[in-house]
Specification:
The complex is a heterodimer.
Chain A (H helix, E strand, L loop, with lengths): L3 H4 L3 E3 L3 H18 L5 E8 H5 L5 H9 L12 H7 L3 E7 L8 E9 L2 E11 L2 E7 L2 E5 L4 E8 L4 H12 L3 E8 L5 E8 L5 H8 L4 E7 L4
Parallel strand pairs in A: 2-3
Antiparallel strand pairs in A: 2-4, 4-5, 5-6, 6-7, 8-10, 8-11, 9-10
Helix pairs in contact in A: 2-4, 4-5
Chain B lengths: L4 H11 L3 H13 L3 H23 L13 H8 L6 H18 L3 E3 L9 H12 L4 H21 L4 H4 L1 H19 L4 H13 L17 H20 L8 H13 L17 H6 L14
Helix pairs in contact in B: 1-2, 2-7, 3-5, 3-7, 4-5, 5-6, 5-11, 6-7, 6-9, 6-11, 7-9, 9-10, 9-11, 10-11, 10-12
Classes of the chains: A alpha+beta, B mainly alpha.
């Protein structure tokens, strides 16, 4: 649905909604998935991001997002210095991910406090983004919701249990997607929510024996 | 948001509400935000639009590529030679916002970053010339938003989908509607201004040099602002257009869908593929843009 402020906005640092604002939101989302500002980032750029990124401030916007700057923050202009000050070490590489990859794709390899995460996503137009892969698992995230990603054994009742935990808290589920690797193997669940996920709900979900891991991702600007 | 100009106008006629009230009410219902909250956000949006124009007119902005910066100020200080001052100022204001955009300044992407210069240029100018108070400017923005919403749903706002006509063409239609309404035009004149503005932008391709939102974008914004203000002038004088606004919008969508991909923001055709343009973009970009204090 189109909102008035999609038309009379967004307010953003130029020059491009896809190559600057969208790139920044990709960085913000990668940071949210990692759970904080990375210490090291290897960023690979594909297609138009690789070809015209420098002139569009794409590199700055990606780095700015990784250190938590929103798309309307003028510090994006100085994101190289800002990222240095935030203790981020980074490298950029141009890559060819093939014809099937969206032309504005970035792949982040991020490290923080000994944890490593690989995030792939694309800027799909008008500042909107889609995260398509986390640590090799296919996902589809736009950053517009609070999100929970769960990898669990594919057993009856897991979905009901998780939905029940949120129901108890009065949190509304916006979307839910389940992909499984095979019958009675593992299932990857992506749950988008209108409200933030409480520590208590996350703990409760993590306490179940069928759970491999659960990751909470905050909604981004 | 409404899906046709016709339904915006019909609701206005049936309820006795003004066009801005109709747009505002739809947004209140869809977003759950209060009317005051929405008007306040538009007030802030207008302030950012004015600030961007001011910044660019100082003449110090430069883009990282070096392709743009300083031209708005040059035109502003040269002043009118052939045109009336209002026209020359409108051109300079449109270029100004796009130069700020290219230099990684703060802009309002209304409806897109690449077409961000059009609506502010004519709205800020007309507000000054007609001494419109801020509430009326907010009303004019609502009219612009309503028109842009219709185009977004019926056609497209993206250069990659519909060429420059989808970006600066839509911006011109929004701007024409805003100032036609603000200048006291009837609902029908507002609709006619949309048709007149957009018909003059049909077929315009998106062919940015180096794929950057710079050249010809800054000039396309200037000419779209000109198209918008001319459309408003003609509509206010009672000139008509035989094809209704909604149909012109549909035509724009159709032209966009049939436009070769080389002319849809791929930098593979048009000016982007001209020999001199190809040479230009081999220039190494500087490490950072200059001129805007963070």
């Amino acid at each position: 649905m189109v909102s008035l402020f999609d038309i009379l906005g967004p307010v953003m640092v130029g020059p491009s909604s896809s190559h600057t604002a969208g790139a920044c939101r990709l960085g913000l989302m990668a940071r949210a998935i990692l759970g904080g500002t990375p210490e090291r980032a290897r960023i690979r750029l594909h297609g138009s991001f690789a070809a015209t990124g420098e002139g569009h401030g794409t590199h700055r916007a990606l780095l700015g997002g990784l250190i938590g700057l929103p798309p309307d923050d003028l510090r994006l202009r100085n994101a190289y210095d800002e990222a240095e000050a935030a203790g981020l070490e980074w490298t950029f590489e141009n890559v060819d991910l093939g014809d099937d990859a969206h032309p504005n794709t970035a792949v982040f390899e991020l490290e923080r406090a000994g944890e490593r995460t690989v995030v792939r996503g694309a800027s799909v137009g008008g500042g909107r983004i889609e995260i398509t892969e986390i640590d090799g698992f296919p996902v589809s995230l736009g950053g517009d919701y609070h999100t929970l990603i769960v990898l669990a054994r594919d057993e009856p009742g897991t979905i009901a249990t998780i939905a029940g935990i949120f129901a108890k808290e009065g949190v509304n589920l916006a979307t839910m997607r389940v992909d499984r690797t095979g019958r009675h193997k593992d299932a990857l669940m992506t749950i988008e929510l209108d409200e933030p996920i409480s520590d208590k709900a996350l703990e409760e979900i993590r306490s179940h024996r069928w759970l491999h891991w659960a990751r909470r991702i905050e909604k981004i600007a | 948001m409404h899906r046709s100009i016709e339904s915006l106008i019909r609701e206005s006629e049936e309820t006795g509400k003004s066009l801005p009230e109709v747009v505002l009410q739809a947004e209140v219902e869809e977003s759950g935000r209060s009317a005051e909250e929405i008007r306040e956000r538009i007030r802030k949006t207008l302030a950012i639009m004015r600030a961007a124009i001011e910044e660019g007119l100082k003449g110090e902005v430069r883009s990282p590529s070096g392709l743009t910066g300083g031209r708005a100020a040059r035109l502003w200080s040269a002043g009118p030679r052939l045109l009336g001052p209002r026209v020359t100022e409108t051109l300079a204001r449109a270029i100004s916002t796009l130069e700020v955009n290219a230099a990684m300044g703060l802009i309002v992407a209304a409806p897109t970053a690449g077409a961000a210069g059009v609506l502010p240029a004519i709205l800020v100018g007309v507000s000054e010339y007609l001494e419109l108070d801020e509430e009326r400017q907010i009303d004019a923005m609502l009219v612009a938003g309503g028109v842009g919403g219709v185009v977004a749903q019926r056609a497209s706002l993206a250069g990659a989908e519909g060429g420059c006509q989808a970006e600066t063409g839509t911006a011109a239609a929004m701007g024409a509607a805003a100032v036609t309404w603000a200048a006291g035009g009837t609902n029908q004149q507002v609709a006619t201004s949309v048709a007149l503005a957009l018909q003059g932008m049909l077929g315009l391709i998106c062919d940015p040099i180096g794929g950057l939102v710079e050249i010809p974008c800054i000039y396309r914004n200037a000419s779209a602002a000109m198209q918008a203000i001319a459309a408003a002038e003609m509509a206010l004088a009672g000139l008509d257009f035989p094809v209704p606004a909604d149909e012109v919008i549909d035509v724009m969508g159709e032209v966009g869908r049939r436009m070769p991909v080389a002319y849809r923001e791929t930098a593979q055709g048009g000016l982007a593929a001209a020999p001199s343009a190809r040479k230009l973009v081999q220039i190494q970009p500087s490490r950072r843009p200059t001129g805007i204090s963070a």
